[in-house]
């Protein structure tokens, strides 16, 4: 599930609906707007169907099919994919909620619609995984999907706003041209080639797939929690706590086979797998005051991205590092 798809899913209903004269395109109506509602429902159904067919044909068709099977992938990629599941489900729920509110739907039904559709989309992908011989139905994936939806719904029900945003950032690491020899000693390949094979080379692909470069953040708004009415604390200032991992060239361990079945194993003493924890500053773009509805919408879409900022890193190798700018 890509960032582009999240944005598309959340904003497509707004892009094609027709409004009554006198109602601004981005203005929320006071009551349910039939044209907006049915246009949004139709667009959502078409989007869901198209995406599922596309995923099945473009991605899953390349792998061997199987009967429904389970797969426990907890701990794979140091659970970076699990953090991604929570982030994706959270953003789907949030975007769909915003689209529902735009149609004039009331607050609580909009929240539960966001949760239901976010859960449905993620569960549908899990069903495709369940019928793939390479993967399977992952109960941990469902648990993190549910957590992402719950983080959205819990805040909206408790506070009527999102005080803790889930965000993402990603910078592709500089992979070394380190030569990895096969276990039998007959072949070798560059570690950078292995990274290209796993994560791709172009930015849109690596932004989503490269777990070594990806960080998932919980961005906490200070003003909403701590500020008093006379406080000078900026309402848009957030503190962000991030999670990442490094030196991962396989799901559970740095061992893989090539297309000819030749086994490669990376020396863990040279390239140890480890987890990273970050503390940084961030901006909640939705809290920046502007009279422009279009600018507010753009800010809402971009608010899934953690801004580049200084960051303090503590990792499981026992190191502490300061990054002047981290993304």
Summarize the amount of helix as a percent range.
40-55%
State the secondary-structure class.
Answer: alpha+beta
Number of structural domains: 2
Number of strands: 10
Précis, in short:
The protein has 327 residues and is of the alpha+beta class. It has 9 helices and 10 strands.
Structural write-up:
With 327 residues, the chain is α+β, with helices and mostly antiparallel strands. The chain folds into 2 domains: 1-160, no CATH class; 163-327, no CATH class. It has helices spanning 3-16, 34-58, 80-102, 107-130, 139-159, 191-199, 203-209, 222-226, 293-302, and strands at residues 164-170, 179-181, 188-190, 214-221, 237-246, 255-257, 263-265, 274-283, 309-315, 320-326. It has a 6-stranded antiparallel beta sheet with strand order 1-4-5-8-9-10. Helix 1 runs parallel beside helix 3 and helix 2 (34-58) packs parallel to helix 4.
List keywords for this structure.
globular; two-stranded antiparallel sheet; 327 residues; alpha+beta; 2 domains
Secondary-structure map with pairings?
Elements: H1 3-16, H2 34-58, H3 80-102, H4 107-130, H5 139-159, E1 164-170, E2 179-181, E3 188-190, H6 191-199, H7 203-209, E4 214-221, H8 222-226, E5 237-246, E6 255-257, E7 263-265, E8 274-283, H9 293-302, E9 309-315, E10 320-326
Antiparallel strand pairs: 1-4, 2-3, 4-5, 5-8, 6-7, 8-9, 9-10
Helix pairs in contact: 1-2, 1-3, 2-4, 3-4, 3-5, 4-5
């Amino acid at each position: 599930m890509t960032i582009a798809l999240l944005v598309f899913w959340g904003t497509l209903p707004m892009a094609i609906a027709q409004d009554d004269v006198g109602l601004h395109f981005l203005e929320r109506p006071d009551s349910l707007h039939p044209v907006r509602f049915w246009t949004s429902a139709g667009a959502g159904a078409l989007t869901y169907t198209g995406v599922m067919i596309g995923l099945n044909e473009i991605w899953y068709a390349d792998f061997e099919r199987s009967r429904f099977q389970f797969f426990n992938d907890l701990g794979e990629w140091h659970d970076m994919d699990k953090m991604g599941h929570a982030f994706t489900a959270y953003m789907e729920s949030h975007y769909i909620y915003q689209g529902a509110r735009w149609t004039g739907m009331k607050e609580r039904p909009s929240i539960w619609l966001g949760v239901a559709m976010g859960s449905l989309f993620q569960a549908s992908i899990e069903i495709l995984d369940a019928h793939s011989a390479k993967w399977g139905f992952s109960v941990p994936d469902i648990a993190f999907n549910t957590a992402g939806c719950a983080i959205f719904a819990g805040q909206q029900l408790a506070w009527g706003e999102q005080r803790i945003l889930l965000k993402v950032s990603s910078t592709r690491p500089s992979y070394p041209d380190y030569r990895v020899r096969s276990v039998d000693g007959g072949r070798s390949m560059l570690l950078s080639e292995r990274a290209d094979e796993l994560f791709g080379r172009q930015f849109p692909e690596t932004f989503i797939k490269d777990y070594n470069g990806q960080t998932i953040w919980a961005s906490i708004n200070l003003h909403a929690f701590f500020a008093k009415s006379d406080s000078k604390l900026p309402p848009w200032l957030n503190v962000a706590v991030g999670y990442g991992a490094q030196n991962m060239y396989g799901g559970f361990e740095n061992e893989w086979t090539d297309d000819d079945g030749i086994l490669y194993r990376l020396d863990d003493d040279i390239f140890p797998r480890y987890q990273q924890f970050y503390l940084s500053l961030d901006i909640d773009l939705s809290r920046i005051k502007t009279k422009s509805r279009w600018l507010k919408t753009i800010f809402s879409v971009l608010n899934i991205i953690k801004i580049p900022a200084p960051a303090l890193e503590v990792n499981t190798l026992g190191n502490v590092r300061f990054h002047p700018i981290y993304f």
